[in-house]
Every structure is written in C-alpha cells, then in structure tokens.
C-alpha cells in the first residue's frame, strides 16, 4: 500500500541522515530511544525497536510507541523546516506492526517558523526542577490543547479544582504502587547513569526529588541543584488522550506530545511527562472514568510550567550514535 502522491521526491542520503539525526532529539521513556529508521531513495521509514521496551513498566509497549510517535512528529517538523512536505502512512503494513510509519516527501516552501522550529527541536529537554509559582493560565493550556487538535490528536487541560485534586491523588498512588514493585525499581536503576548514549544521566535529575505537597518524581535523587522556591499549585496539567488504547492511538499520542512540547518550548514553557499514572492500570482506569468521563482513553499526563528566568538551560541528554539507529 502506498498512499503517496506522484509529486513525491527522493531524498539524498545525506539529507535523510540529517533529518533522522534531528528527529532522534525527541523525548523517549527513560531515554530508551526505542526506534530504528530506514533511509531509502523514496523516503524514510520508522520502526519500533521492541528490544528496547521496558519490560516491567511498559509491557504493552504503549510508552515505546508514544516515544516513536514523538520522533515521527519531530521528523515531520524538521522536514518542513528543510523545505520538504512530509506525507505519512501510519502503520501501513498489517503484517508488520513494528513498521510504524512510512514518510515520503515533496518540495515545499519554508514555513516562517522554520528557524524557531529547528531551535526548539535542538534545545528542548525534560527539566524536572521545580517550576516557579506563576500559574499557567487556563487559556494557555487551552491553546496548547488546540495545537494538539490541529495536529490530529486530542488533549484535555485539567483545570477543574476537583479534577486536579483527583489527578494529584492518582499520581501519588501510582508512584507508591510502583515503588513497591522490585522489577520497576530495578528497571529505573538500570536506566539511570547507564552509558554515554542512552538512559537518564543523574546530572539531569533534581537533587531533591521529593518535595512535600508536590507530585513525586519517579527517579531517585540526582545531582542537579534544585534550590528554587517551593512550587505552589500553579503547574498546568494536560492529559493527552486517544479514542482507544491501540497502537494507532499511541503513535498519534506521541505525535501530540511532540506538537505540544515544541509549541510550549517556543513559548518559554517547560514540560514534564508523567507516565506512571498511565502505566498502573488501576490509576489509568480511574483517570479514564473519573476525569475523562469514559469519553476518551488517557495516554500521557503532562505537567507544564515556567522555569525561573535565572536558571541555566539544561544540556541536551545524550543520544545513540546515528548508525546504531539506522537499518541498512
Ligand atoms: C512516553 C514518555 C513517558 C515519559 N515519562 C516520564 C515520567 O514519568 N517522568 C519523567 O520525569 N520523565 C518522563 N519522560 C521524559 C523522558 O524521561 C525524557 O524524554 C528522556 O529522559 C530524554 O530526555 P530529554 O527529554 O531531556 O531529551 C517520558 C517521556 C516519554 C516520551
């Protein structure tokens, strides 16, 4: 099945390599970078690398596919910013569910946002330090959700006081349950300070992960100084959702994550995904029922806020060498 148009152009290998090297700047669960790419004369194909799935925290591969979806959206953005219009066939081969997307390209004018888009891809990072107490206005959250909808996904700002309270309790409950699961705790440790290419460097994890009255961090205490003010209740919360809990929804959810994150980053907002509440089935079901009224399925909770202006930006986290993620 092709679904691609006749104006598709091939891309030179060097251009393909450049696009993939930027797409892999995408966020991924525990920085597992669970993707593999094939560059060929017609375009670029994206595969899920199931060998990098987190067996304990992500047995179904939801977070794996969401991570790949984020990389797919990154690819779309950097292609546009390089004068190429991407056309995507999602999950094109029913026989091969690891083939997540085939992307073909046609020439297109550069968007006005090209430079800012490329900068956001290169500079975005997960900054888990405490946000300032400036509240993120509901209107701002609605605009981010709108951005996701325009990209073909779904997002629900959690602004109602009762819903926020419920979400807060569910996040804590999920954290507590996972802390009791030895396999999950061991998995986090395996992915912390792993090597120079993947996993979570502890100099990116705050030195004080547990703040009273604050949502808990899933990671152990790191080395990143975090002496900011205590956060008030100003953090913005957004739920990325899907129609169902299928691979297609997860892929879209990942694209939504990237769309939201790049837009937030361009607007000076910091983003931290919180996936434990989705990974634990009882809190995921409670979220779906109590907060989404069973009209959608929750895929990822996102915390949004402002980092103090005086704070230095974090160095980008490491990535695997390009040749490791390219299929020949
Ligand atoms: C599906 C998904 C789930 C994630 N879950 C969490 C989480 O629960 N807590 C957290 O602090 N970061 C979470 N992250 C952020 C990743 O840890 C982060 O993207 C990765 O370490 C790479 O770092 P970077 O975003 O700075 O490039 C998640 C990212 C993705 C894509």
TrEMBL record:
<protein>
    <submittedName>
        <fullName>NAD(P)H nitroreductase</fullName>
    </submittedName>
</protein>
<dbReference type="GO" id="GO:0016491">
    <property type="term" value="F:oxidoreductase activity"/>
</dbReference>
<dbReference type="InterPro" id="IPR050627">
    <property type="entry name" value="Nitroreductase/BluB"/>
</dbReference>
<dbReference type="InterPro" id="IPR000415">
    <property type="entry name" value="Nitroreductase-like"/>
</dbReference>
């Amino acid at each position: 099945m092709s679904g691609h148009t006749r104006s598709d152009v091939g891309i030179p290998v060097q251009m393909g390599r450049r696009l993939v090297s930027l797409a892999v700047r995408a966020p991924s669960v525990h920085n597992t970078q669970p993707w593999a790419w094939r560059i060929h004369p017609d375009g670029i194909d994206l595969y899920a690398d199931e060998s990098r799935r987190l067996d304990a925290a992500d047995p179904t591969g939801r977070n794996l596919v969401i991570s790949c979806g984020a990389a797919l959206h990154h690819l779309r953005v950097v292609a546009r910013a390089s004068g190429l219009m991407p056309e995507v066939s999602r999950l094109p081969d029913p026989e091969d569910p690891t083939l997540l997307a085939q992307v073909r390209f046609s020439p297109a004018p550069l968007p006005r946002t090209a430079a800012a888009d490329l900068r956001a891809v290169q500079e975005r990072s997960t900054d888990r330090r405490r946000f300032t107490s400036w509240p993120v206005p509901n209107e701002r959250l609605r605009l981010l959700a709108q951005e996701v909808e325009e990209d073909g996904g779904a997002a629900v700002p959690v602004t109602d006081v009762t819903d926020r309270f419920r979400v807060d309790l569910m996040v804590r409950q999920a954290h507590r349950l996972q802390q009791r699961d030895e396999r999950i705790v061991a998995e986090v440790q395996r992915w912390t300070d792993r090597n120079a290419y993947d996993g979570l460097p502890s100099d990116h994890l705050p030195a004080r992960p547990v703040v009273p009255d604050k949502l808990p961090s899933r990671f152990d205490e790191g080395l990143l100084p975090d002496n900011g003010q205590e956060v008030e209740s100003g953090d913005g919360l957004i739920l990325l959702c899907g129609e169902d809990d299928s691979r297609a929804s997860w892929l879209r959810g990942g694209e939504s994550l990237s769309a939201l994150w790049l837009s937030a980053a361009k607007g000076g907002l910091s983003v931290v995904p919180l996936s434990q509440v989705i990974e634990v089935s009882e809190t995921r079901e409670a979220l779906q029922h109590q907060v989404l009224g069973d009209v959608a399925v929750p895929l990822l909770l996102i915390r949004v806020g402002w980092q103090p202006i005086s704070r230095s930006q974090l160095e980008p986290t490491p990535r695997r060498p390009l040749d490791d993620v390219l299929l020949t």
